[in-house]
Amino acid sequence: MKVNAVVATKPWTVELQELRVADPGPSEVVVKVTHSWISPGTEGSFIRGERLAGDTPLAPTDPTPFPLVTGYQKVGVVTWVGESVENFSVGERVFATVSRTDGLFFPMGGHVSPAITPAHQLWKLPESTLPIEAFSGLVLTQVGYNCGTRPPLRPGEGAIVVGDGLVGQWAAQTLAERGATVTLLGRHAERLAKFTRGTATTDQESIASGQSVLVDTVGDLETVYALLPKLGRDSHFVSAGFYGHAGKIDLQRLRNYEMTVHTPSGWTTPRMDATRDWVAQGKLTTLPLVTHRFPVTDATAAFDLFLHRRAPSLGILLEWPS
Q: Fewer C-beta neighbours within 10 Å, C or N terminus of the chain?
């Protein structure tokens, strides 16, 4: 079966290619993709040759993971269902994570259509007035949801989120939805302006002391340590950034606050279900974070935009032919 895929052929190089994969099997579903959402942080580090796997940094002795199809999130319509699949039907709108990409470094990837996908990596989309692409970043939205729901929290308690990227935005939204008084700390005025449910600032000195939660979404331990005096006793540190080979946290410094550490990673069915429902209910907003849309035929330009920082960007969608 022939599919189209966005392939990283070597470091810093991405192009749309036609791939040949084995025909779908009895436990798989074929999805005609309408939109896929780029994850600049994770996908960028793979394309730059910094990662070997999801949370595994590339070591000098490791093979470089090319060619590969990056990404892990998309939406579309079911066009074929394997005989062993009971919960999906042709014509349904779905979200899909990774799909088959035979013959590459990894056997699965995100930006591919038609997408031959294991049934357990699919989610039905609810009836909603939202466009289908509102759900196309659901894995990354779930990472923010995971960060924001991990720490115990009472309404009115303070929470700091480090990083004004997508995960930071959704973590801040989640904490605000839970009743926290949220401060989003970032570096980009145009991104910070998109957070309207709390305080958004570039000035960490302005953050009040006595905070209950600190979420690091960018892997910046220097900032984390600088913010520790803002935390109270029995506070919580949520670490979701990628630290590479430098991810050594000084527990003794955290012990002074009797701090609990949370290390969310990946996705689970219950969290994906809850995140999908929060998006449908308007508790989490996604489309206001989209700054760029590209036809998939311009995928090279889409990745070049954030890899080389051609212009300010946040959410980047690839639109596939209808």
A: C
CA distance 54 to 70: 11
Over residues 237-284, the pLDDT tens digits come to 999 987 766 678 888 889 989 999 999 988 999 999 999 999 999 999
Crossing angle for the helix pair 138-149 and 269-281, to the nearest 10 degrees? 100
Domain that holds residue 104: 2-137+286-319
Upper half-sphere CA count for residue 82 (Cβ side, 13 Å): 15
Say what percent of the chain tops pLDDT 70: 98
Same domain, 190 and 313: no
In terms of Cβ atoms closer than 10 Å to its own Cβ (0-12, 13-18, 19+), residue 308 is exposed
CATH number at residue 170: 3.40.50.720
Whether 275 is covered by a domain: the verdict is no
Query: At 302, which CATH number?
Result: 3.90.180.10
What's the domain count of the chain?
Answer: 2
Q: Is the dihedral of CA 194, 265, 209, 222 positive or negative?
A: negative
107: which 2 tokens? 């056997």
